[in-house]
From TrEMBL:
SMART domains for this protein: AAA
Stretches for region Disordered: 602-626
Name of this protein: ABC transporter ATP-binding protein
Pfam families given in the database record: ABC_tran (PF00005)
Taxonomic lineage: Bacteria, Bacillati, Actinomycetota, Actinomycetes, Streptosporangiales
Amino acid sequence: MRDAGAGSLLRRGRVAAELAWRAQPAAVLGSLAVVLLMGAAPVATAWLTKLVLDNLASGGGGGILLLAAALGVAGLALVVLPHVAEYLNGQLHRGLQRLIYDRLFRAVNADPGLSRFENPSFHDELRLAHEAGQNAPQQIAGSSLAIFQGVLTLLGFMVTLTVLSPVMVVVVIAAALPSARVQLALSRRRARTMWGISSNTRRQLFYGALLTSPDAAKEVRLFGLGDFLRARMLKELGTVNEAERDLDRRTLRSQGLMSLLGAAVAAGGLFWAVLAAASGSLSVGDVSVFVAAVAGVQTALTSIVSQWAGAHNALLMFGHYVGVVQAGPGLPVAAEPAAMPPLREGIELRDVWFRYDDEHPWVLRGVNLFIPYGKAVALVGLNGAGKSTLVKLLCRLYDPVRGAVLWDGVDLREVHPDDLRARLGVVFQDYMAYDLTAAENIMLGDLAAGADPEAIRAAARRAGIHDALDTLPKGYDTLLSRIFFGEGDERQAGVTLSGGQWQRLALARALMRHRRDLLILDEPSSGLDAEAEHAVHLGLRRHRAGRTSVLISHRLGALRDADLIVVLSEGKIRERGSHGELMALGGEYARLFGLQASGYEPSGAAGPGAGESLRTTTPSTRSAGR
Ligand SMILES: Nc1ncnc2c1ncn2[C@@H]1O[C@H](COP(=O)(O)OP(=O)(O)OP(=O)(O)O)[C@@H](O)[C@H]1O
């Protein structure tokens, strides 16, 4: 939970006010005017009522009609103004939402690294930031206006009460003070509770999402997970509900007590006023204005206190939003990034050590590797050897804990991540399948060139998916989704692709960047049939001739033509060389290659050229493939 001293609350208040003003200045000004009128109207009504009553008691003078008309106008204002306030509030809400989300997602997106996204605290904070972003600034603005309105009403009635009974002013205010303290304590507790149950709420949403996700639907049904997931979801919801019920009980107890106190003061005041009127020291009009004033002061004070507590709670919650928006990137970006010219010599990993967290074991242990310009380097190793991790360091999604990754001798930490990534084309093992059209799925690989349909088709051809896309109901404009309708009037459901087709689509996306300096293919063809894989690799070889590539595959046959093959094991490079050299060495690579080849040989012997399209002994999983 963030610190919430007065200074920090004030700073958050300033941020919220600035946001409201930027989002909807007209609505803010309009709301101020309405608040002024609404603040003055009850006092005016009370005084006008007194004047009318006194006028009637004294036989009714000439001004009575004018007073009655003024009373009517004040009553009208009291009825109409809340609706105007509601409309302005809606306007402010819509304007604020747009601005708030724009800033929130801009800030989240500005982090070029991955580590924050793998931190549960960040997700708790993000969820609360999201929630606070939806309500807090508006609540802060709304409560501030309501406090202003309450103060206006309060001042008006205090003057009134002071004229009639100064003692009563003191009693009413004294009765309101404990209520203020209680409300503030409650708002602190509410903010603490929300932080405490944030993980439960996220887990509850997670289980709920699994129960409805089309990706999970197969396993949920086949393994019969529905009841299990529902029970877990309800358990989390139960924890959340219990915490909220405790809070509500506390609120009920405290507010009930405070209301009793207020009612006792009002009753005492009324008793005194009636006695005073009976003894002739107050007029009937005085009694009416006194009763209105006691009720008005109490209502205004209660409103000020509860609005203050609401604003206080919103400010505490808003701290999460401000925290995320102002956090700065998790992965540091150089203040004056070095230039990033095209690759000329090569990329070097120099004594690279890496682990995902201080508590986690080392994943890479002193890796030294040079990827020469214009060459294809293949990474080979069993599951968990560290291949994808090495690739993520090449993309600077993380920084090495020790050592460095150098691009033509320049440390990647010194260049801007955007400049680096503009020079890369990458397919990750866990590629994304977007619920967008086929063309859009490919276009995302190069937004600048993506509007060009020919570039999209060329990438699809290179990935061997063109024919399949061309024959879809709407060709490349077909929506690839089972959860959305296509745009337009027909509400036509989208279609979806096979796992291998999705993978080719992801490959096409990366191949939108096939002229980039470094192409990284982390298992680009594991889901393809043998013939397709062969065709894809042949195509890549042709297109990438003379360009720098890093390839990862468990099908060693697909890698045999690489200029350099590197065998990773337990985070260290164990072997390196060409296919021929490694086979001659007779080490781990030769063993794995032979093992794969033997699976296809009736005699179990691995002949030359074997393993061309063999299944791996260590199959990988697809998280995004469908
Ligand atoms: N984001 C992460 N946070 C923590 N640990 C991770 C993370 N990603 C990978 N690891 C761990 O790092 C190790 C290496 O994983 P990596 O994905 O680099 O292996 P790999 O060689 O690509 O394996 P595979 O052949 O299965 O794809 C594994 O032990 C894995 O559990």
